[in-house]
Amino acid sequence: MAVASTPPLQLVIAALLALSLSTTASSSPAPANRSSCYKRLFSFGDSLTDTGNYIIHYSNASGPVLALPYGETFFGRPTGRWSDGRLIIDFIVERLGFQYWPAYLKGAAGKSPAEEFRYGTNFAVAAATALSQDFFLEKNLRVDLLTPSPIPPYSLGVQIDLFKKVLAMLASTDQERKEVMSSSLFLVGEIGLNDYNHPFLQNKTLEWVRPLVPQVISSIVLSIEALIELGAKTMYVPGIFPLGCTPLYLSLFPGDDRDPATGCLRGVNDLILAHNHMLETKLEELRRDHPGVSITYVNSYDNVLGLITAPTQNGFDKETVLEACYPVFISGSAAVPCVDPSKHVNFDGLHMTEAAYKLMARGMLDGPFAAPSIMSTTCNHGC
């Protein structure tokens, strides 16, 4: 896999571990908490949400995320985010008025839990799955071919278990835990993409992958129920974006059936639509079973598809809407960064640019791709 030239790996890792989520001159601290609703934000997921957990866990890892142009647009350096700049979670943190908080695995040496988790924390890890690591090991799917490293042991269930440890540090009594849970916002996902991505990248077919969908959804539902049992009152649960529109998948399956209206892969997108429909149905059931809990489905699929079908209206180049700015994951590509990532929807073949994430975040914060949107929530759960 061709990648851009990088400085010595040990120097990159040292810099990342020291600075990956600290405030820099290009990313000054957000103002004091403006949110009249949420005291903390806790997030779970994979590389779409990971703000540095992956590189901290795999401190000896190699791969493109350790070097520019990752991070070039906003941070001016790689931070462990799989984009040229900020992710959806960063824009949500900014709008809530929180300071950028550390990825959970980074920790904050010398700080008390109240200080370290003052605004919450992020448990998402790149390449993480909804199903357990053991599930994939039993299927002889052991490696994430994109990173490349073993499939990480931070499935959604493991991330929830890590959150339970944080909750125990923050609150010692049932009443205190109830207050923490009711006054926090939970972002559960995006998760599930890698449950399909790992098999596809190891030559499994749609027929092999499709039966995984109910199992993936069940795993997500179990984690949501675990948060509800702990006392969570407000959750946002994103679906998966149209994977069949990514440059990586368009290059992996060049001869597959394409939608003439979009140029995207029909079979792959049908799989994602099945996942999203089942997820949305299960969330509706959870809402009926737990009327005191706000569980909002986030329609990431239509959000991203809108950027692809109406690129110029959203500031992107029509000619490159299905191309990667930095095609590091595209076999045979020179992996030369583009001049202006803001004109691209896709950054590296699978992940989005900061410009795309900004619009996706707006769809969650202000609507219409989350109803109620995050900023319209009246916060009637004890905040």
Automatic annotation (TrEMBL):
Signal peptide region: 1-25
GO molecular function: hydrolase activity, acting on ester bonds
InterPro entries: GDSL (IPR001087), SGNH_hydro_sf (IPR036514), SGNH_plant_lipase-like (IPR035669)
Pfam families xref list: Lipase_GDSL
Keywords: Glycoprotein, Hydrolase, Signal
SUPFAM superfamilies, per the entry: SGNH hydrolase
Domain of life: Eukaryota
Family as reported in the entry's similarity comment: Belongs to the 'GDSL' lipolytic enzyme family.
Protein name as catalogued: GDSL esterase/lipase
Organism whose genome encodes this protein: Triticum aestivum
